[in-house]
Amino acid sequence: MNCDTTYEAWTVVAVPLGASGCGALHPAAVVSTREFNQNGTTILAPMTSARRPAAEGDIRVEAGTAGLAKDSVIRMKLFTIDTDSIAKKLGELPEAVGQALGDQIFSLLQLG
Prior knowledge:
Elements: E1 11-16, E2 25-30, H1 34-37, E3 41-48, E4 59-61, E5 72-74, E6 79-82, E7 88-92, H2 95-108
Antiparallel strand pairs: 1-2, 1-7, 2-3, 3-5, 3-6, 4-5
């Protein structure tokens, strides 16, 4: 995949989902720092076009933002992936969305 790239927090990337890691590519927001990601693991929040009802903590992202083709939501279902499994960068979240994502994670983990 993309072995030479380390991503910044709030970058939107395309990742393979599924048990084998060979599934279709889906967008996800990087939530870990560049320094953390340099160790070969990246923490992500999945993104979906949200045809299902909103889940607690969802953060809306409009189509055309960060390389997204559809209106989407960032879900608070954090997961890790080998950094070299990230297929490609789609774009960057706007500062306000990144701030909202950071605040939501901080709140959900009761860090403040």
